């Protein structure tokens, strides 16, 4: 991937910018995993780095790196697909590059402040300069504003190119969805003394990102990738994309209700949240079937014509199939079993949530974004038919196995927590610690750490593969 | 503050395992049903698997019924859920029908 | 592309329109519900408290009142009950003072990044106990362990002392780090916690502080 800076067969500036974003994304992915390991160790050995680099800091960088690497990879994917979809170079490539460097510099400063300054005094100054202390949206206010400016530049690039170029269905969904995605960020940028109102709008950003607009984004990427990798017919893929938008927004927007069960909001959210979040797995099932169906059809057609493979990018397709499955597993199964209010009153805020978070962020987002990186490499080295190397296979296996293992361990921990802390001991300070110290919980956390290490090894293999696969296959 | 219509019963600790299991089975049976149906229709596997798929749909509906009983939802909710399961029975047929239509149209 | 679709089911424009309508409908419904909800969760006023009007999120002056969390038979779950007046840090706080204290507390809770170890209203990290009803935690009762350990005579003073020097008063191997919380900030945080315990969370956490037997806890 590093070499792709020099040996670049990409003809469009837009795609080169996409690769720039991918490179930073993979570095931040590594940072996310390192921080996760530190936090996992602290669960078992609480004195590890105590009052030096506390859990709160590791956890903050862990989840921020997650969000930011995914946004980087998403922005990169959009720059990468622009020329393919609109048939032209992006408008304003120069300012796009500038925005990339500004954003990257800002992210670096924010992370350094997180790590070295950590916390501030209880004044507005802290919110402006150090961190906002709201899970996922910790970025200080100055960075918020910076992000908005960079995103405006990005949106200008996308929108102007869309207007001038060809307007495909895939690109139309992308442009409309990005508008919602970017606009939602504004809901998380103000301060209020009322914690209920605070969390009400906070969920607008978090939920309407990860369970609505990001999901549609993934659907759009999958549509683009299916056309590109297996030569699926555009008309069919685009029609499906609209059906997915219908189902995802139809269930996901009001599915927001499942976060409003316990934050002070009225009881009617119970019914709304339960109904719409029970519907949320349906589009994931449909997406899964769709990917298999199209793959089966195209493969059948290629075989009928005497060819061997419909797929021209093995690793990317493997990650996209993993995505279709992981989305259903992480978001569907792990989401559904604690989404009903009768159950959620016990599971809310336990390791169940953490298990669901790990598996669904990985299954629904990390997978397809890694797939996009392979797609980018294929373009950068001009490889006609990219095959998975031994390393790509090991990387995908270790990553999937590791994350799945973490999710299962955390589920066991969560189950124990529900029984002991919530159902029996009354959810107090003492109840919490009693549950944390029971052998089931401690062992589950131990396995989580082991699986975290497996995940990290998988990541290391992935990086080596990304760095070498292009050169290797271009030489053949 | 209005009265509440959704039941929120106290759950017994020993009910949690069956609750989580049945919720998981709803999803797993659900996807196996859809998967078998689709593959059978695509002729990737013998066509009798379509009927095996229906068995899984039945398992799915039963698990959901069990789940709704375990969490103590009311009669009305239970009926709504069973209607939803009927809709789910139709879903893969509908998806397949859509696929057929579009492929006929565009191939 | 130009050919007419044979049926509506394979027509892209049909699905595009349907997607737009469904999304639009969901969004309009969400906005409408948002207006209703924001109305219901806006903080009440001091007058509401004096007149016994129940608000989902009471005014900051709720810190001048005794708060309990009791089973509400009609609603089928627990809800906060605001009782008689009681002093908070040895005095009654005026409307402005209480608002300023709560402001300081909420700000400090963000500045010190509480949410990345604890959960607030069940949201946050899962490394430390949930703080939704922390004010009511029996550990801070007169006969509870924290009062003795910190050597203070009231709940609020004990909590503030703990917050200022948490690693001096360890309850378990997993400790809260010293975050440099000043005396004023600690008062603010306690006010924030007391206010949060008065929020009507539809019965979350369930059975707070009431043990239901402990077969699984061994």
How are the SSEs ordered, and which strands pair?
The complex is a heterotrimer of chains A (476), B (107) and C (218).
Chain A: H1 13-44, H2 55-86, H3 93-116, H4 124-129, H5 141-164, H6 169-185, H7 195-230, H8 234-255, H9 268-279, H10 281-304, H11 314-336, H12 341-347, H13 351-381, H14 390-424, H15 429-437, H16 439-475
Chain B: H1 16-41, H2 49-70, H3 75-106
Helix pairs in contact in B: 1-2, 1-3, 2-3
Chain C: H1 12-41, H2 46-50, E1 65-72, E2 77-85, H3 95-111, E3 119-120, E4 123-124, H4 145-150, H5 155-164, H6 183-197
Antiparallel strand pairs in C: 1-2, 3-4
Helix pairs in contact in C: 3-6, 5-6
Sum this structure up briefly.
Chain A is mainly alpha-helical.
Offer a few descriptive terms.
heterotrimer, A: 476 residues, mainly alpha, Cytochrome C Oxidase, Chain A, 16 helices, globular, B: 107 residues, 3 helices
What do you see in this structure?
The complex is a heterotrimer of chains A (476), B (107) and C (218). With 476 residues, chain A is an all-alpha fold. Chain A contains 16 helices and no strands. Among the domains of chain A are: 160 residues; 165 residues, Cytochrome C Oxidase, Chain A. The longest helix of chain A has 37 residues. The radius of gyration of chain A is 22 Å and the shape is globular. Chain A starts with 12 loop residues before the first helix and ends with a helix. By secondary structure, chain B is mainly α. Chain B has one domain. Chain B is 75% helix and 0% strand. Chain B contains 3 helices and no strands. In chain B, helix 1 packs parallel to helix 3. The radius of gyration of chain B is 18 Å and the shape is elongated. With 218 residues, chain C is of the alpha+beta class. The longest helix of chain C is centred in the first third of the chain and has 30 residues. Chain C is globular. In chain C, 48% of the residues are buried. At the A-C interface, helix 1, helix 2, helix 4, helix 7 and helix 8 of A face helix 1, helix 3, strand 3, strand 4 and helix 6 of C.
């Amino acid at each position: 991937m590093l070499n792709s800076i020099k040996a670049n067969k990409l003809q469009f500036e837009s795609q080169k910018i996409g690769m720039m974003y991918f490179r930073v994304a993979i570095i931040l992915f590594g940072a996310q995993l390192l921080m996760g390991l530190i936090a996992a160790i602290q669960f078992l050995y609480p004195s590890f780095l105590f009052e030096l680099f506390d859990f709160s800091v590791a956890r903050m960088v862990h989840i921020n790196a997650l969000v930011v690497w995914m946004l980087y990879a998403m922005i990169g994917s959009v720059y990468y697909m622009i020329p393919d979809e609109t048939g032209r170079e992006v408008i304003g490539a120069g300012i796009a590059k500038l925005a990339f460097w500004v954003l990257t510099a800002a992210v670096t400063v924010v992370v350094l402040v997180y790590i070295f300054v950590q916390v501030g005094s209880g004044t507005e100054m802290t919110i402006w300069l150090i961190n906002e202390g709201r899970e996922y949206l910790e970025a200080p206010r100055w960075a918020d504003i910076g992000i908005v400016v960079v995103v405006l530049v990005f949106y200008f690039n996308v929108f102007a190119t869309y207007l001038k170029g060809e307007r495909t269905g895939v690109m139309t969904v992308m442009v409309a969805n990005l508008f919602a995605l970017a606009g939602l960020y504004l809901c998380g940028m103000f301060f209020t003394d009322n914690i209920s109102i605070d969390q009400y709008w906070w969920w607008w950003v978090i939920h309407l990102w990860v369970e609505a607009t990001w999901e549609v984004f993934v659907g759009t990427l999958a549509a683009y990738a299916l056309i590109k990798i297996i030569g699926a017919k555009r008309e069919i893929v685009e029609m499906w994309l609209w059906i997915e938008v219908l189902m995802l927004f139809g269930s996901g927007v009001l599915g927001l209700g499942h976060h409003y069960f316990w934050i002070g909001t009225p009881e009617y959210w119970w019914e709304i949240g339960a109904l719409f979040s029970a519907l949320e797995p349906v589009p994931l099932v449909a997406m899964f079937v769709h990917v298999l169906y199209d793959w089966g059809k195209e493969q059948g057609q290629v075989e009928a014509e005497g060819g061997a493979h419909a797929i021209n990018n093995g690793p990317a397709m493997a990650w996209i199939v993993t995505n279709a499955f992981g989305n259903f597993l992480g978001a569907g199964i792990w989401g559904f079993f604690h989404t009903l209010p009768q159950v959620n009153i016990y599971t809310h805020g336990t390791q169940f949530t953490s298990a669901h978070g790990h598996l669904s962020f990985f299954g629904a987002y990390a997978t397809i974004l890694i797939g996009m990186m392979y797609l980018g490499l294929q373009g950068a080295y001009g490889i006609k038919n990219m095959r998975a190397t031994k390393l790509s296979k090991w990387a995908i296996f270790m990553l999937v196995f590791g994350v799945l293992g973490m999710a299962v361990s955390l589920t066991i921990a969560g189950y124990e927590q529900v029984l002991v802390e919530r159902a029996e001991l009354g959810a107090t300070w003492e109840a919490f610690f009693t549950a944390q110290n029971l052998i089931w919980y401690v062992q589950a956390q131990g396995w989580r750490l082991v699986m975290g290490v497996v995940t990290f090894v998988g990541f290391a293999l992935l990086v080596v593969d990304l760095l070498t696969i292009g050169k290797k296959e271009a030489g053949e | 503050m209005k009265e509440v219509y959704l039941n929120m019963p106290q759950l017994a600790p020993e009910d949690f395992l069956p609750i989580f299991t049945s919720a998981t089975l709803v999803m797993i049976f659900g996807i196996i049903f859809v998967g078998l149906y689709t593959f059978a229709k695509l002729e990737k596997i013998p066509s009798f698997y379509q009927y095996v798929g229906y068995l899984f749909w039945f398992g799915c509906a039963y698990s959901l019924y069990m789940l709704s009983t375990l969490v103590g939802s009311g009669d009305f909710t239970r009926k709504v859920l069973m209607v939803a399961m009927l809709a789910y029975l139709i879903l893969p047929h509908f998806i397949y029908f859509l696929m057929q239509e579009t492929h006929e149209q565009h191939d | 592309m130009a050919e007419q679709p044979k049926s509506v089911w394979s027509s892209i424009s049909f699905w595009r329109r349907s997607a737009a309508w469904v999304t639009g409908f969901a969004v309009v419904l969400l906005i409408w519900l948002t207006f209703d909800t924001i109305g219901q969760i806006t903080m009440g006023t001091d007058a509401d408290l004096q007149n016994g009007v129940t608000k989902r999120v009471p005014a900051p002056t709720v810190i001048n009142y005794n708060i309990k969390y009791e089973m509400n038979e009609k609603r089928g779950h627990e809800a906060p009950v605001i009782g008689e007046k009681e002093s908070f840090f040895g005095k009654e706080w005026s409307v402005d003072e209480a608002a300023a204290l709560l402001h300081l507390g909420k700000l400090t809770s963000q500045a010190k990044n509480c949410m990345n170890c604890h959960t607030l209203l069940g949201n946050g990290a899962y490394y430390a106990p949930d703080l939704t009803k922390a004010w009511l935690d029996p550990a801070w009762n007169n006969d509870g362990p924290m009062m003795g350990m910190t050597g203070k005579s009231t709940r609020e003073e004990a909590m503030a002392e703990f917050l200022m020097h948490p690693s001096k008063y360890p309850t378990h191997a997993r400790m809260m780090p010293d975050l440099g919380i000043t005396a004023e900030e600690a008062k603010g945080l306690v006010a924030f916690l007391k206010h949060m315990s008065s929020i009507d969370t539809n019965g979350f956490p369930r059975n707070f502080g009431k043990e239901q037997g402990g077969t699984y806890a061994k």
